[in-house]
Design brief:
Elements: H1 2-31, E1 48-58, E2 63-66, H2 73-88, E3 93-94, E4 105-110, E5 122-126, E6 130-135, H3 138-151, E7 166-175, E8 181-187, H4 195-207, E9 212-216, E10 218-219, E11 222-223, H5 232-235, H6 252-264, E12 268-275, H7 280-285, H8 314-330, E13 335-339, H9 348-364, E14 368-372, E15 385-388, H10 392-400, E16 404-407, H11 410-413, H12 435-439, E17 454-461, H13 469-476, H14 479-488, H15 496-504, H16 507-512, H17 532-537
Parallel strand pairs: 2-3, 2-4, 4-6, 8-9, 8-17, 9-12, 12-13, 13-14, 14-15, 15-16, 16-17
Antiparallel strand pairs: 1-7, 5-6, 5-7, 10-11
Helix pairs in contact: 2-3, 4-6, 8-9
Bound molecules: ligand TNX.
Ligand TNX binds next to loops.
């Protein structure tokens, strides 16, 4: 008798709990404000967005599931959970057994859809019950995860639920990149940046779907990568930087750590050893390499164009073979950048001879050569790549040779150009580049380079005037966000007026990441009203 009474009470209690749960669920659904997926502040702007005005509730009952057999998908689920935690403090379970009260589910699937026509293409379907992210590759799914991070509301929604609920607007996103090469470059030679700084930069790049980080590892003022067969390069050549500070260098372990961290973010490292000019630090370390007829001395100034290797010496090519060999062995990406710019004291015929020989060394080590636009003046192979920074004529030579071109015109794409005359850091030899000028140009049609020759876009950040991560961030952000859109989103879908609204809404993310961006007065920056810690206190 007692036990029957007890069990009916229990059933009753459960029923009431269930009812109140349902009541709460209903309330939550009822209270969902109308959404607009197309108005989400996604950068780069996706190819196609169809909004259906509902909401997926991301809360403590949500869970993530991924394809379990496809390599990398499980880790990607963990990555998303970690980023959601950073944004909302929610602990979302990944590939766990379904929890009681489990509500919405996020699936990250490997698909084999023919519609997904580049390796980085993906689709996202959001309904009130589920978020489905499909891609044929883990790389594409990673790009889609960045979109997901961006479409989760910045603050919890007003839903009457007793716990915070973040909204993901419902609808469909179909997306993929315009260009396969979407890069930025960091000059760690003029001023050295630590592994931690580079990792932070990678985190930020990944959020905006960049896939290449080019590291300028050597210049007149410093040599920054350990080469075991030539140890003085870092012992001597690594000891200085612009302005007289102590310099620094990456050990091979450090470099491998950067390469691995970049790979986890689906970013390829392109290593650059600049030569035959910009080689003072190497020549001070090993004077046998020097070809300018003077005794090389450590150099901490900013003027360039005075140094050159001796292009007619076998030792120089043995040295280059060792250097490229050691770096190529640690760099899984397909490219090796040989610099080749501003060799003002190398005779033209020596320059051409040099580039042709070094190209062969690069190919011997299994890499595709990239060089600044001057390399196209040599007889290089059509598989080598020219990086357009200054000369239309050199770009034309590259096109005539059937080479691919990376678009980095200094006047438009140099992150080290000052925003305006008041900018705290940067140079202005090419131009002042305010935030709108950085965005409003068409790399697809720049200086008559045919679209089929364009491999992609890269925004270089030279570091003569910056030495800390804060200064780096001031020059790179917000402009690097615009270059990410130029290299991903087709020109028909780009427009400054809508871009600047989406850019304004990056402020909460940049603040959360502790990025000291330049608060361009052209942008009506949206400050988040509160941080998540304050939300959870409410
Ligand atoms: C030109 S761009 C250079 C660099 C400088 C930069 C400063 C290029 C290939 N060479 O050596 O750092 O200007 O803006």
């Amino acid at each position: 008798m007692k036990s029957t009474l007890f069990s009916s009470l229990l059933v009753c209690a459960c029923f009431i709990t269930l009812l109140s749960c349902q009541e709460e669920k209903k309330k939550r659904v009822l209270q969902f404000p109308k959404t607009d997926l197309a108005a989400s502040p996604t950068i780069p702007k996706p190819l196609k967005v169809i909004a259906t005005e509902g909401g997926f509730a991301l809360d403590q009952f949500s869970a993530i599931y991924t394809s379990e057999t496809a390599p990398g998908f499980g880790e990607l689920g963990e990555f998303l959970a970690q980023k959601i935690k950073h944004k909302t403090q929610l602990e979302i379970q990944v590939n766990g057994s379904p929890k009681q009260n489990q509500e919405g589910v996020i699936y990250i699937n490997q698909s084999d859809s023919l519609e997904l026509n580049t390796p980085e293409s993906y689709q996202i379907y959001v309904t009130p019950d589920s978020v489905i992210l499909n891609s044929n590759t883990v790389e594409g799914a990673f790009r889609g995860v960045q979109t997901l991070r961006q479409i989760i509301s910045e603050v919890p929604s007003d839903t009457l639920a007793e716990y915070p609920v973040w909204t993901i607007p419902t609808g469909k996103i179909v997306d993929g990149p315009s260009f396969e090469y979407r890069g930025t470059m960091l000059d760690v030679a003029r001023h050295f940046f630590s592994v931690a700084d580079v990792k932070k930069y990678i985190d930020l790049m990944a959020y905006y779907k960049y896939n290449v980080l080019h590291l300028h590892l050597s210049d007149d003022q410093g040599w920054r990568i350990e080469i075991k067969s030539w140890p003085k390069l870092t012992e001597i050549g690594g000891s200085t930087e612009v302005g007289g500070e102590a310099g620094g260098f990456y050990t091979q372990e450090d470099y491998k750590e950067i390469v691995a961290y970049a790979a986890e973010h689906f970013i390829t490292i392109v290593p650059e050893i600049d030569m035959p000019g910009h080689t003072n630090a190497a020549s001070v370390s090993y004077p046998i390499l020097n070809g300018n007829g003077k005794t090389p001395k450590l150099y901490e100034g900013m003027r360039v164009g005075f140094s050159t290797f001796d292009t007619r010496k076998d030792t120089v090519y043995a040295f280059i073979d060792d250097v490229i060999g050691e770096i190529a062995a640690m760099s899984p990406g397909p490219y090796f950048h040989i610099g080749g710019d501003e060799s003002h004291v190398t005779k033209k015929k020596d320059y051409v001879y040099f580039v042709e020989k070094v190209e062969k060394i690069v190919r011997k080590h299994g890499k595709r050569m990239i060089g600044w636009d001057e390399v196209a003046t040599a007889k290089v192979d059509s598989t080598s790549i020219s990086q357009f920074w200054a000369s239309k004529e050199n770009a034309q030579e590259a096109v005539d040779k059937g080479m691919k071109i990376i678009m980095s015109p200094a006047k438009k794409a140099y992150l080290d150009m000052q925003y305006d005359t008041l900018s705290k850091h940067g140079l202005h030899w090419a131009a002042y580049i305010p935030t709108d000028t950085a965005y409003i140009w068409t790399p697809e049609e720049y200086e008559g380079v045919p679209l089929e020759n364009i491999l992609g876009i890269e925004a270089p950040l030279w570091s003569e005037t910056i030495s800390t991560i804060e200064e780096l961030e001031y020059l790179a952000f917000p402009r690097a966000i615009g270059y990410a859109e130029l290299s991903w989103t087709p020109k028909e879908n780009r427009d400054w007026d809508t871009y600047k609204v989406r850019l304004a809404k990056q402020a909460p993310f940049l603040d959360r990441m502790d990025v000291k961006y330049y608060p361009s007065p052209l942008i009506d920056w949206q400050k988040s009203k509160y941080t998540y810690k304050e939300i959870l206190k409410d």
